[in-house]
């Protein structure tokens, strides 16, 4: 759309011959070259036939200033004479800003192709935002210039109307850029949010495993968290069982020693009491 806007007035043969900014009935002004004058981006044309014909020599940033566009300023509305610089610079600066906006848009398209392999979403949003800014500023300046000119001609009794197709393309470009800018910003914010979320998950996973490795091992447990080995199938388990059974064997031997000692004590006591029993039997027999 911006290409069509910037190319209007460059030729009289293609579809571009139907695009113009402003048309006014100028037959009452001696300095006007045509009865119906049309202003485009590069010249003035005859609009009597319904299309751009017999256009003047093309000139970049062609100003909308009847005082400069016509051969003389006789009978022109006074506003074009008193505020000549306003119309002159509004139209010319607007065209220049529109050109800058188009250049930035082309840069955006080029960087978008490169960003397929490299993440450049923030940079893309910046370029597109600048393009939107310059295009919007251009649209405001150009619209202001031609609306003021239309009102001036109407107040002077001339029939006028704005180029609906041209302004439709201009403001359509602004709307499309605004939509693209919001979409790009939304995509950029979504990407950053997703990246932060993934980073947070990775950090939590690392902390979890670090805490798990650093946790103290309870007494009597080993660091081996695998499946328990079957009895007698592992060397380490063998020694572990041996260490546990050794005190049991010692306790059994100790108990046997105590039992033997008790038996010997009992035998000794019986032996000690035997003479006494024999003496008692002899005493009874004597009686």
TrEMBL record:
<dbReference type="GO" id="GO:0045121">
    <property type="term" value="C:membrane raft"/>
</dbReference>
<dbReference type="GO" id="GO:0030866">
    <property type="term" value="P:cortical actin cytoskeleton organization"/>
</dbReference>
<keyword id="KW-0472">Membrane</keyword>
<dbReference type="GO" id="GO:0032185">
    <property type="term" value="P:septin cytoskeleton organization"/>
</dbReference>
<dbReference type="GO" id="GO:0031505">
    <property type="term" value="P:fungal-type cell wall organization"/>
</dbReference>
<feature type="transmembrane region" description="Helical">
    <location>
        <begin position="167"/>
        <end position="192"/>
    </location>
</feature>
<feature type="transmembrane region" description="Helical">
    <location>
        <begin position="123"/>
        <end position="147"/>
    </location>
</feature>
<dbReference type="Pfam" id="PF06687">
    <property type="entry name" value="SUR7"/>
</dbReference>
<protein>
    <recommendedName>
        <fullName>SUR7 family protein FMP45</fullName>
    </recommendedName>
</protein>
<feature type="region of interest" description="Disordered">
    <location>
        <begin position="247"/>
        <end position="270"/>
    </location>
</feature>
<dbReference type="GO" id="GO:0005886">
    <property type="term" value="C:plasma membrane"/>
</dbReference>
<dbReference type="GO" id="GO:0006897">
    <property type="term" value="P:endocytosis"/>
</dbReference>
<feature type="transmembrane region" description="Helical">
    <location>
        <begin position="93"/>
        <end position="116"/>
    </location>
</feature>
<dbReference type="GO" id="GO:0005938">
    <property type="term" value="C:cell cortex"/>
</dbReference>
<dbReference type="InterPro" id="IPR009571">
    <property type="entry name" value="SUR7/Rim9-like_fungi"/>
</dbReference>
<keyword id="KW-0812">Transmembrane</keyword>
<keyword id="KW-1133">Transmembrane helix</keyword>
